[in-house]
Amino acid sequence: MPRTSLSLFEFSLLGLVRDREPCCGYDLRKVFADTPMGSFSDSPGSIYPALARLERAKLIRGRVEETSSVRRRKLFRLSAGGLSALKRWLHLPITQADMVRGMPELALRFAFLESVLGRGACVPFLEALEKELALYIPTLRRHLQSAQAANSLSAGLAMEGGIMAYENRLAWVRLALDRLRRMRTRIS
Amino acid sequence: MPRTSLSLFEFSLLGLVRDREPCCGYDLRKVFADTPMGSFSDSPGSIYPALARLERAKLIRGRVEETSSVRRRKLFRLSAGGLSALKRWLHLPITQADMVRGMPELALRFAFLESVLGRGACVPFLEALEKELALYIPTLRRHLQSAQAANSLSAGLAMEGGIMAYENRLAWVRLALDRLRRMRTRIS
DNA sequence: TCTTACATGTAAAAGGTTACATGATTAT
DNA sequence: ATAATCATGTAACCTTTTACATGTAAGA
């Protein structure tokens, strides 16, 4: 078996290739190096082997470009299989487990959502996220209440900061929903 | 060479051992499994080898407990070298690079700060963090401005969410500073 | 009795990190 | 001329993941 699921890093490559088709490994390195994107490694030792894996798995296809002017490079495109793997990932339900692991994966999924599944997918995604966050935050608060007695002030503040981060996420979700809904009414 | 620096995971083990001395591998597994702590792996395959590494590096010391009642277990304590490694890490200056990589490492450092370096270390740490955040956020805003034109709505919202997360961090820093300063005046 | 919690480990496979290696092109 | 940027890769080393392996004690 060629491994069940892809890592976040591999999905981010898939999504980036899809958005920048056709692009080479170096283009992707630049994204990781220059933008506040996910903060994955931009080292050649991580990107080139990962691209080779994705190509072996037939999720992307690479062709060495033949031009005289520019240096030789390998241009990648998403394959049909790659696109459907990306779609499956984006369609995954949002669960409590996603809350515990934090937002990075969900943020990444949202970043690719519109371009891959269309604008219509954004509102349901955010509504599901809103629901899970609204359920999760009170359990975090309870955890803080019960744990903080014994701990230090700074440990308590650190936990408080963690909760604030989730509340902030919820605020963002609501802002995003607002904007998307406003767009919709404007169009219709 | 036994490797220059420890991973976040290893520092978190060091800090937890220090706070719960003496404790065994299973105690640490429970922390990772049951609390919203950093979200490191609680698998035995990551924890026991890591503890063995830390012991080989003489940062912790483990002794097999000899009691009749409880099952055999290995209790760890921080060594003098481990404590000073922890202190060095906590004393590290806060830089722009820390902003780019995100807050998890800084949050972890703050969580251990008071118990290892004393309450006096909290305010300077937060002040440094406040300064770097206040410098970094405007550069993020500029990045959003320049990049968002070409991108999709959802990609723009995702970036906006990233910025909001940093602003939320800054709000937390100010709240924490407030509380700490209030304490100080109350005590003095 | 059966399951859950306690408790510690190892082995194989996969992946990431760091450093090395190479070489063309473009700007200073 | 020299440095920086473009461009792709490999090799050694280390860590993590997943799964296996073992066995006790307590509670339902």
Structure description:
2 copies of one chain form a homodimer. The first copy, chain A, is mainly α and 188 residues long. The first copy, chain A, is built from 8 helices and 2 strands, in the order H-H-H-E-E-H-H-H-H-H. In chain A, strands 1-2 form a two-stranded antiparallel sheet. In chain A, helix 1 packs parallel to helix 6 and helix 7 (122-148) packs antiparallel against helix 8. The longest helix of chain A is centred in the C-terminal third of the chain and has 35 residues, at 153-187. The model of chain A has no long low-confidence stretch (mean pLDDT 89). Chain A binds chain B through residues 35-36, 39, 100-102, 107, 110-115, 119, 122, 140, 143, 147, 152-155, 157-162, 164-165, 168-169, 171-172, 175-176, 179-180, 183, and chain B through 35-36, 39, 100-102, 107, 110-115, 119, 122, 140, 143, 147, 152-155, 157-162, 164-165, 168-169, 171-172, 175-176, 179-180, 183. Chain A binds a DNA duplex (28 and 28 nucleotides) through helix 2 and helix 3.
Strand content of chain A: 5-15%
Rounded mean pLDDT of chain A is 89
Distance between the termini of chain A: 48 Å
- Largest sheet entry of chain A: 2 strands, antiparallel
- Along the chain, the helix and strand elements of chain A come as HHHEEHHHHH
**What is the general shape of chain A?**
globular
- Unreliable spans of chain A are none
